[in-house]
Amino acid sequence: MLTFNYLMHCCESIFVTSPSCLISLLATVISMMATVMNSVLLQSALEKLGIQTRVQSAFSMPELAEPYSRQRAIRHLEKGRVVIFGGVGAGAGNPLFTTDTAAALRASEINADALLKGTNVNGIDDWQTSNSNMILDHISFRDVVSGGATSMDMMAITYCEENGIPVVVFNMLEPGNISRALCGEQVGTLIDQTGRISQ
Q1: What domains can be seen in the chain, in order of their start residue?
Q2: Gap between the Cα atoms of 2 and 100, Å rounded
Q3: pLDDT less than 50: residues of the chain
Q4: Contact 186/176 with Cβ under 8 angstroms?
Q5: Diameter of the chain by CA atoms?
Q6: Which residues cross the membrane (predicted)?
Q7: Can you tell me the distance from the alpha carbon of 175 to that of 177, in angstroms, rounded to the nearest whole number?
Q8: Three-state SS across the chain?
């Protein structure tokens, strides 16, 4: 999927400025399908653990995922089910949205308490120190935007700020971090309205 996202970025200018946009469009569609496939794999893993899970996507793949419906998603959540939304395009129904922006949009629509951004970095680096290995525990949206130092799309950060949705950026490859993030424990970097830079 990283390859497809990279290809999508490389072809973005072609998509906007040239009639030879088929490569970019194809990369976008493949990325959208890949996010739904990843969602189905996650669903399978969760259901093997006995967790009732549903996959929803605005990108039509009825054999694999329910069509996106805000009301249905909320009903699933009220019944204690996990709802997984497909990402790029598939999550938002728009192939030009990143997975981050699609996640921010869905978080807002379902009135989520927070958006958890699982990635391959430990959080947001403290760009104000010479030590690039210093990870911030807590920072404001404004400081993230002004510093520009995050693994998350700035459009998604701004959307979360405007809608009052805290964001946690954490390393999902570290064993136990997903559970810790879901339980509200300190993991990675918390981004919110107030923020305070701490180490």
Answers
A1: 1-12+20-112 (3.40.1160.10), 113-199 (3.40.1160.10)
A2: 14
A3: 1-19, 90-91, 198-199
A4: no
A5: 51
A6: 22-42
A7: 6
A8: CHHHHHHHHHHHHHHHHCCCCHHHHHHHHHHHHHHHHHHHHHHHHHHHCCCCEEEEECCCCCCCCEECCHHHHHHHHHCCCEEEECCCECCCCECCCCHHHHHHHHHHHCCCCCEEEEECCCCCECCCCCCCCCECCEEEHHHHHHHCCCCCCHHHHHHHHHCCCCEEEEECCCCCHHHHHHCCCCCCEEEECCCCCCC
Under 8 Å between Cβ of 8 and 31:
yes
- Look up residue 87 and give its two tokens: 């990402």
Site of tokens 């009825």: 62
Per-residue b or e along 64-92, where b marks 16 or more CB atoms closer than 10 Å to that residue's CB: bbeebeeeebeebeeeeeebbbbbbbbbb
